[in-house]
Design brief:
2 copies of one chain form a homodimer. Chain A is an alpha/beta fold. In chain A, 29% of the residues lie in helices and 30% in strands. In chain A, the strands form 3 sheets. Chain A has an 8-stranded mixed sheet with strand order 5-4-1-6-9-10-11-12, with helices on both faces. The first copy, chain A, has a two-stranded antiparallel ribbon with strand order 2-3. In chain A, β2 and β3 form a beta hairpin.
């Protein structure tokens, strides 16, 4: 508590007066009332970024998938479950935002059909037909009055190549590339990021997600201010 | 704390000297290093049963899927993730057990193939081939020296019919049938159970999972003692 208070006093509120939208956690795509598809995002990185942006003086809205984390102090949290709900909530919020940090691990695929009753098991196998979910970040980057958009790329291989392609293809301002492997990325307290923007990149070395988030929020603010407010 | 201590003093340790194995929570079936299939079990009912069995004087082992719950006092917890791991852990533990309470919502289906790298998304849909997981409770009920086995049936329709069929078909001693619907069953603190055994049944009305677990553990102990130790 004391350290938190001291940090606040020593930190210049470099995002004062700015609105920041952070998305965090996984989404769940229902298959029947009991079963769902999801992914290993713990939400910790997104929650740490929301906390760090609030520390930096921003008004922070956090759209969160299902996670077992407390809402950071001073942050307005909106709870969602599916990719569609995440998408809808972002569309409602985004117009008022200066910066969007899309850290949620939104499901890329969802079941084509959702059963209204529990599917009874049989002795046979089963085929689950999946369809793509809407790519909300790509949609938002096409808006005329879009915020400064920071994306994430969680990868198990070809990290920078994949991240660089997403940066260009999705019309992002910055992207944080994130190895997902044993003991790093998802479900752990530490992380490292490679941050790319148009014409540059920097490696943020492995540390606690809390500390990493503070460093990354400073970097985002620098690039945001350099670009000039919309 | 005081109420907990008072409850212990007033409760006869009717499971003293008995070994109880409880399974709890969902399982996760990986599809690639990031994505998985799971279900909405919070683990709360199973954890409450483990706590109530320990209160009743039993030596309790809890095999748990991924949940956001603390291990109850005095309970030995074994952490697993997939249905296969749950099955393996149960096979190791079961020989030493007097009573098995299989409360975990073990996945019935898992992907036939697990990708070792994250599956890159395309613009097209995708088909996920699923196969049945081993039905460990059914396997255990075929053991010569099997424990007293209590199963669970979480249903969205035909509750008693489905539960009654599972009781007979899986060779269980008792089964707790559990409606899963908005505000009941999974992901909530309250629950109600219909408990069936060969030749009888009782409705345990809706209350907190903690209280319900204490009532149910007493009922299990009565039937276990009536049957006579193996």
């Amino acid at each position: 508590e004391l350290i938190g208070a001291a940090t606040k006093l020593l930190t210049k509120p470099f995002l004062a007066g700015r609105s920041v939208l952070v998305t965090a956690g996984p989404t769940r795509e229902s298959w029947d009332p009991i079963r769902f598809l999801s992914n290993r995002s713990s939400g910790k990185m997104g929650y740490a970024l929301a906390a760090a942006a609030a520390e930096a003086g921003a008004q922070v809205t956090l759209i969160s998938g299902p996670v077992a984390l407390e809402t950071p102090l001073g942050v307005h949290r909106i709870q969602v479950e599916s990719a569609q709900q995440m998408c809808d909530a972002m569309l409602v919020q985004v117009a008022a935002m200066d910066i969007l940090i899309a850290c949620a691990a939104v499901a890329d695929y969802r079941p084509v059909k959702q059963a209204t009753q529990k599917i009874k098991k049989t002795h046979q196998g089963l085929t689950l037909e999946l369809e793509r979910t809407p790519d909300i970040v790509e949609q938002l980057s096409n808006l005329a009055d879009k915020p400064f958009i920071v994306g994430f790329a969680a990868e198990t291989e070809h990290l920078e190549t994949n991240a660089s392609r997403k940066l260009k293809h999705k019309g992002l301002d910055m992207i944080a590339a994130n190895w997902v492997r044993e003991g790093q990325g998802f479900e752990v307290d530490d992380n490292a990021l490679t941050v790319l923007w148009h014409g540059g990149k920097v490696d943020l070395p492995r540390t606690s997600k809390t500390q990493l988030a503070r460093t990354f929020i400073k970097l985002i603010a620098e690039h945001y201010h350099a670009k000039g407010p919309a």
